[in-house]
């Protein structure tokens, strides 16, 4: 069975990367959720996609120049807040696995430390997490910090590059854009033992076509469409 993974929560239904969106994804019965992280000016990991708050909130400015208390005053769709990564972990509470995408700079170390805290102090396991990134250096830092953390290489350009990085990093999975898949590169990835999770697939015809392949997961804004 192809696993259903909620993109930024359930972005198609509730504003992205909010606790409410992650709760919606749980309500829709996802196997996993995907989210994006940055480090804000006061040092906490916050769950947010863009490098500036302008598109999604009623404020303006760069995420890494604003403190957590400043970010918490901002409103998303009039009423929702930017959550910290720890708040999302606590909400999910092992009801599904979590794909943390290292979006911002210098996110590897604090993400590793938070995952380690949940594994060593709260009874979670490393199987509760996948850490992915388009940034090879952040993945390298994660691998160097803790070899037990499962890595996925993101790519919107080529599956070959995702595979090359995955080999170098001893990754667990590749996360290519769904349009890059071919029978040949799926076969190659599977031969090498990688899981394949693709993004962001929202249309029924694409989902049906992909479900016929031997891929492992589909990241969707509408995870109930799987
Ligand atoms: O992790 C998959 C996907 O979310 C990567 O693209 O721009 O949605 O973060 P983006
Ligand atoms: Ca993402």
TrEMBL record:
<protein>
    <submittedName>
        <fullName>Glycerophosphoryl diester phosphodiesterase family protein</fullName>
    </submittedName>
</protein>
<dbReference type="GO" id="GO:0006629">
    <property type="term" value="P:lipid metabolic process"/>
</dbReference>
<dbReference type="InterPro" id="IPR030395">
    <property type="entry name" value="GP_PDE_dom"/>
</dbReference>
<feature type="domain" description="GP-PDE">
    <location>
        <begin position="2"/>
        <end position="226"/>
    </location>
</feature>
<dbReference type="InterPro" id="IPR017946">
    <property type="entry name" value="PLC-like_Pdiesterase_TIM-brl"/>
</dbReference>
<dbReference type="GO" id="GO:0008081">
    <property type="term" value="F:phosphoric diester hydrolase activity"/>
</dbReference>
<dbReference type="Pfam" id="PF03009">
    <property type="entry name" value="GDPD"/>
</dbReference>
């Amino acid at each position: 069975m192809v696993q259903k993974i909620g993109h930024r929560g359930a972005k198609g239904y509730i504003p992205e990367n909010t606790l409410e969106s992650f709760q919606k994804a749980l309500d829709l019965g996802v196997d996993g959720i995907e989210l994006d992280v940055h480090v804000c000016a006061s040092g906490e990991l916050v769950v947010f996609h863009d490098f500036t708050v302008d598109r999604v909130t009623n404020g303006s400015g760069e995420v890494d120049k604003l403190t957590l208390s400043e970010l918490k005053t901002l409103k998303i769709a009039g009423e929702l807040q930017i959550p910290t990564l720890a708040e999302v972990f606590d909400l999910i509470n092992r009801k599904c696995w979590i794909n943390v995408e290292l979006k911002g700079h210098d996110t590897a170390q604090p993400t590793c430390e938070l995952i380690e805290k949940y594994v060593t102090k709260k009874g979670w396991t490393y199987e509760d997490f996948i850490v992915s990134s388009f940034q090879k250096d952040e993945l390298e830092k994660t691998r160097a910090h803790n070899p037990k953390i499962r890595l996925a290489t993101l790519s919107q350009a080529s599956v070959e590059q995702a595979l090359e990085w995955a080999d170098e990093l001893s990754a667990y999975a590749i996360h290519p854009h769904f349009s890059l898949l071919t029978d040949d590169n799926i076969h190659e990835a599977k031969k090498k033992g990688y899981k394949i999770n693709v993004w962001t697939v929202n249309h029924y015809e694409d989902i049906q076509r992909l479900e016929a392949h031997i891929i492992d997961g589909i990241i969707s804004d509408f995870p109930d469409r799987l």
